[in-house]
Amino acid sequence: MMAKNKEPRPPSYAIGVVGLSGTEKDKGNCGVGKSCLCNRFVRSKADEYYPEHTSVLSTIDFGGRVVNNDHFLYWGDVTQCGEDGIDCKIHVVEQTEFIDDQTFLPHRSTNLQPYIKRAAATKLQSAEKLMYICTDQLGLEQDFEQKQMPEGKLNIDGFLLCIDVSQGCNRKFDDQLKFVNNLYIQLSKSKKPIIIAATKCDECVEHYLREVQSFASNKKNLLVVETSARFNVNVETCFTALVQMMDKTRGKPKIIPYLDAYKTQRQLVVTATDKFEKLVQTVRDYHATWKTVSNKLKNHPDYEEYINLEGTKKAKNTFSKHIEQLKQEHIRKRRDEYINTLPRAFNTLLSNLEEIEHLSWSEALKLMEKRPDFHLCFVVLEKTPWDETDHIDKVNDRRIPFDLLSTLEAEKVYQNHVQHLISEKRRVEMKEKFKKTLEKIQFISPGQPWEEVMCFVMEDEAFKYITEVDSREVYSRHQREIVEKAKEEFQEMLFEHSELFYDLDLNATPSSDKMSEIHAVLSEEPRYKALQKLAPDRESLLLKHIGFVYHPTKETCLSGQNCMDIKVEQLLANSLLQLDHGRSNLYHDSASIDKVNIFILGKDGFAQELANEIRMQSTDDEYALDGKIYELDLRPVDAKSPYLLSQLWTSAFKPHGFFCVFNSIESLNFIGECIGKIRTEASQIRRDKYMATLPFILILANQRESKNLPILRHQGQQLANKLQCPFIDVPAGTYPRKFNEAQIKQALRGVLEAVKHNFDVVSPLPTIKDLSEADLRIVMCAMCGDPFSVHLILSPFLDSHSCSAAQAGQNNSLMLDKIIGEKRRRIQITILSYHSSIGVRKDELVHGYILVYSAKRKASMGMLRAFLSEVQDTIPVQLVAVTDSQADFFENEAIKELMTEGEHIATEITAKFTALYSLSQYHRQTEVFTLFFSDVLEKKSMIENSYMSDSTRETTHTSEDVFLHSPRGSSLAYNYYPDSEDDTEAPPPYSPIGDDVQLLPTPDRSKYRLDLEGNEYPVHSTPLNCHDHERNHKVPPPIKPKPSAPKANVKKLDPNLLKTIEAGIRPKPRPGLTQADDDQSDNYAEPIDTIFKRRGVTDDIYAVPDDSQNRVIKIRNSFIINNAQGDEENGFPDRISKTHGERRPSKYKYKSKTLFSKAKSYYRRAHSDASDDEAFTTSKTKRKGRHRGSEEDPLLSPVETWKGGIDNPAITSDQELDDKKMKKKTQKVKEDKKQKKKTKTFNPPTRRNWESNYFGMPLQDLVTPEKPIPHFVEKCVEFIEDTGLCTEGLYRVSGNKTDQDNIQKQFDQDHNISLESMDVTVNAVAGALKAFFADLPDPLIPYSLHPELVEASKILDKTERLYELKEIVKKFHPVNYEVFKYVITHLNRVSQQNRTNFMTADNLSICFWPTLMRPDFENREFLSTTKILQSVIETFIQQCQFFFCSGEILETSDNVTHQPPPLNPVQMIDPIVPLQLPPPLQPQLIQPQLQADPLGII
Question: Residues 1153, 873: contact at Cβ < 8 Å?
């Protein structure tokens, strides 16, 4: 024991490693592994281990300091810590024999003893001998670590005897063992411990190892350690065991078998490898280098451990593999991206299926290269393949390398693309087909859920083909379309009922009574009921419409950008700006004109004759006129010349006007045609504003025969009026020449005045003109959204050369300068929408209204009626119907009806009526309104006096805040007055439309006129323009106001009505009479459950801003009669005395029976006090009978219109006759229903397209008493229950139709086919099962039992209802009963898994009831019971145990609320409600409805 204060000096041992050595002949071509064993022990790190150590050296190397002329090597020392914690130093010496590389004999050294004796030496000495590291060290000792053998000598303490147990290299193991035996004998003489190291055990030969062990067992204390230097197995163990034998204080050495040690070592390597690979995995950039990564990881313990065990080379290889993997992964990702991008590229370049469907892949490639977008999708690389170029690093370049298309993957993508286009085309076709199927189903209503419709289309081919998502998307699109259409129709309906909304003043708020009235009237409309399931949206649309009606602005117009005010402002801003700009350029120098250029038009040389006459009166082409000399440049042109138009448009000659000369009717007509052609060419073809505004002067040449002169004068004046140009007549007296000097001077003055006028028009004074400067103020009204262009209705003004812009700030007005009578008048035309015109109608002075409506739109006529009803009857009105062509009147009944109604209203109120045609140029001329302007001018003073008197009354009645109807205070009284001279007017000098015809067509050719171009056109006018004094507005003819009724001739009056009016018979009003007493008099009325409000009960008072100062007045309901005013204000007493007195203005609705009846109709429908039964009877009577007119004449009794009527059979309703007709109709309908019940059973067409001897056969032919269930049904049910009972959407999700057909076809061929072997889905089998029942000749549930099932379902008591259903099931045919029981039991098992398959009994019944019951969806009786029959099947599924297994009744919530049928079905629902699906809660209510309405639309 050493002292405690001194550290023990670690013991030092020298071990000699010996074994077979010598020449190649002795040891073979490789050694026994002594050097490798020493190398692994002394330098165990993998990087310091060298597997190759040679013993063949040159003489120089042998004499070097490492070998030092010795046959042994000093490997250095190793410090080891034993198990007891004591360190020891082990010096390792390898005894070998070096061979000369020249002689291949052992080198000569100082010790000449043979190897056996030399190896057993215990004392070694070699001065300055260096430690050996590797063969490369020899000769380069300075480049390696230089460590000397301590003190140049060592004493060997033990020997490690190496025996190679591998196959060896040209060496016999027995020879080696013999050599080892001799060597061992020499070693044992030294008395030193010896251990045998079996080397190269990783290549061990088993019997060699056994022989070694046998050799050791024969020796005393000789241990064998199995080692492997390559894998570092037991290397340290063998040295440690020898040290333990040398140091007796240590324990007995523990030898570990090679396999155990190998496993331990490999586990260390595997663990270290895993850790190292995880470190390497952190590198994600395949551009990283080993040098960079190793520098980062060199201090990491996992890295160091792996390097020690496996070496840097393996680590680098592992890293390189990882980098290559990253690169390949990157390339794979890029390839996947390219492959995934290919479909998009193909969609861009090869999207046309018809173009590529039959192309090969190579042809498709060539086609793609020709596309202009090819380089946007693909890149052609100079080097290929692409994954070996730097293109893989161009991440931002998404283009696909073109050489990638040469791969099979790309070709497959192309083929898939073609197939996708084909399938997509098919899918789109099927979606469209399904869409058309939905469009054919009439009972689909807006807002109806998909679930209610799905059962009706489940057997549709298109529905089965597309996915559920597609079907829902198509249905959603269909719903959007029908909802949008329904909303548009609802909005259109609101406009058609404009009279219902426009009876209150602007900025008012509708009262609750008014809202009730609106709902009462609209609720009768099918378009109102169409939105029944979207009631909130419907209410929103209604409130939005009401809000706009009472607070209208162009910003809130329901037509949006199609608002008439917006479109008019845009058109006028563009058209008038261009017109004025053109004129300003043309006439900038016309104020000081000195030279006048004249074109002279004439026929047969007349133009040249007039030119010669003018030149004769001139001096050197200078003409004296009114004290000024003008230079004249005359260009005579023959009107018959084919080059007429080309002669007029020359750059060298700019005319100031035209002289047009004629001397016969033929030449006059020819001149008229020429002028029309010139204006059309200028305004529409060449867009030449200069030529379009030039004046034309008509000059009549003198005649030898004066008898033709009056006719020519009259016709010439008519043409001049039409063309709005001056007419120069032949002066009085006799002149020998054809042209008079006075005519020429007058014509020249006309040209100069026109030029000066055009200059004045475009150069207004800078001061703001007063409105009074316009002679007439006309308002043109049109409805927003009408199907015609704004330019069409403004073309009569804009195409006129006398049109100009209005004052600044009046964006919707224009000015016209027209010759009316003998003077030129300035007319201001303001074009407004109807909603903007209401304020003008109430507050502004207007001389006349031009009311435009579309003959294609009922809403347009409704808005016109609503507006016209409140216009004072002193203001002239021109009605204008707009359509495409005259042929529309004869070909389209709706257009004919609206045009006839417009003309009829015009006839009733003595207004003008005309039509504008978008396809006709003639009717766009300003002359269309000439007669109307003349009429307005004649009544101008009366209109202004009425306006002033209204204003005066308004100011003098400041204490009275209640006015009737008009804010101007006009009375409701309308006094009857006799015919006056104002009621008829002489025909104008020239009428472009005609005098004496009406709109209604007749075959008589006299009803057509020839225009100046020789074309026939129907002539439109009102009776006011004829000479017949009998036709005046005092007695309007009765009409048949129902649109569907045939129209009578508007001129034909009822003779009884004429007699009544002529006799002056007028019943006195009865004070106790209410609306109910004469409710049958007007067939406009539509009864609703509303009580008529008694007279004298005041309505809400509405606050209305009256004028620009926003003064507020109060207006009561227009129908309230103030008794204090007396009979005089009501228009009844003193008619004789007031016949010739001054009449106060009224409203046009009291002059027109059409307008008045409409307003009265709304009032009746909203305020009827008839009972429900009476209302229903009356409604039915009116729907079935013909309209008979009104009982009263609103012209004779304009105020208390409800009180009496004319006792005239022609215009009253015969209730008894109507009742008889109704009874006959009912009997006929009942007979029809009986006949319908006898119709044959519905047999749907089979879905199969092949012949089958099984499917489609009667059920009885497919079963036997032993097997009551069809074999196919059993197979399908067993397959479903075994493999797919929990499949989501079972029986709801459609399977592949091809698979369904294949299942049945295979079964046809082999009834024992296994469905499991067919590789089909559960949904396909379920579809095939349903198809089996669908193909049966008769449904599984017989048609004869359907009515009984329906009746049983109406039983209120649940138990009684179920027992009744059970009795009905027992009536099934035995075969049907067994199959039905089998199927229902199966469906019950399916429903029990509803938590996973989501198929409840309700869902299953929806899917299966059409298959089991086979309803005829075209039959109304089936449609009315669909929900009931579905609920019956649901009951069977839920109560399966009760019906078929004598089980108990399960407690379930009924899906159908059973109520007794109503006592009076006709009161429950309007019989003309459009067909809808039965409501889910009250299906039985549908039955009485169908019985009550045998003429329904189903």
Answer: no
